[in-house]
Write a structure and sequence with these properties.
The chain contains 9 helices and 12 strands. With 273 residues, the chain is an alpha/beta fold. The longest helix has 27 residues. It holds the Pfam family ATP-synt_10.
Length: 273
């Protein structure tokens, strides 16, 4: 009986070690690859349109732990997540100056374009929670997404170009939406304390379209698909009335990039008619 117990103990211990080693694999393999700046060719976005109360899932359920294929897939996902740490993001931002990719040559056609994700949050004008897609539906929208002051600054260059002397915040062809991503609970708490200060820095007429949304609503791998994972940069989406992403940009904007984006907005306005 003692021999049987010892054998079972050895088996249990070896299984635990194998199980643990399996899930430590992402940490061991977390060697980041150097970021390569490429021009966008394929549409960016999600396959399904946003809808209220949708919750994007991340990771495996308890039952999935016993599914070999799903577990291996999750391990690969974790390898990517561990590799792209905060230090990696900072180094990449410094190397690229926030220009993580180059905008497409032209906008994506409606039948090929993918959807903007569901996001909920509050605006500067109201404490009530709402869904961002509700204000996007039926309109052409230029959306700024940022989490930091530097991301806010460089993404604003696509709206206001001091070199050209143009301010498109009041452009009649579209609406401009600001989405300030709150990274975590600490930042959310700090924002509550400094909300009045933030309101004073944003023109009152912009408060209705300035959203505060928790970044964690969109899981890591979904942010990878949307190309918005680097917290230091700022991003621009052009979204059509059907909630599809038709154009995207990031990082600082040159005069040519500024003009390209607003040319796209003009073309989509004609398409709408």
């Amino acid at each position: 009986m003692r021999v049987v117990f010892q054998q079972c103990t050895k088996f249990s211990t070896s299984c635990n070690r194998a199980f643990l080693a399996r899930f430590l694999k992402p940490v061991m393999n977390a060697s980041p690859k150097e970021h390569v700046v490429k021009q966008l060719l394929k549409p960016v976005g999600l396959n399904v349109p946003p809808r209220p109360n949708i919750k994007y899932s991340e990771g495996n359920s308890w039952l999935d732990l016993f599914d070999g294929a799903k577990t291996e897939e999750r391990i690969k996902e974790l390898e990517i997540e561990f590799a792209k740490s905060g230090m990696y993001e900072m180094a990449t931002f410094r190397k690229t100056n926030g220009k993580l990719f180059l905008s497409p040559e032209s906008y994506w056609k409606a039948d090929k374009a993918l959807y903007f994700p569901h996001l909920s949050g509050r605006t500067l004008s109201s404490e009530d929670h709402g869904n961002v897609e509700d204000v996007l539906r039926g309109k052409t929208s230029v959306i700024r997404v940022f989490s930091t002051q530097v991301g806010d600054k460089i993404s604003r260059e696509y709206i206001k170009n001091t070199e050209l002397g143009i301010d498109n915040y009041e452009n009649q062809s579209c609406q401009v939406i600001d989405i300030n991503f709150l990274e975590n609970k600490l930042k959310s708490w700090l924002f509550k304390l400094s909300l009045n200060n933030l309101k004073s820095t944003v023109p009152v007429q912009r408060h209705d379209n300035y959203w505060l949304c928790h970044r964690e609503q969109i899981p890591f791998l979904m942010r990878e698909r949307l190309l918005i994972n680097n917290v230091y940069s700022g991003y621009i989406f052009v979204v059509d009335p059907n909630l599809k992403i038709r154009f995207m940009a990031c990082g600082p904007a040159s005069a040519d990039e500024f003009n390209k984006l607003w040319k796209v907005v003009g073309q989509l306005s004609k398409e709408k008619k």
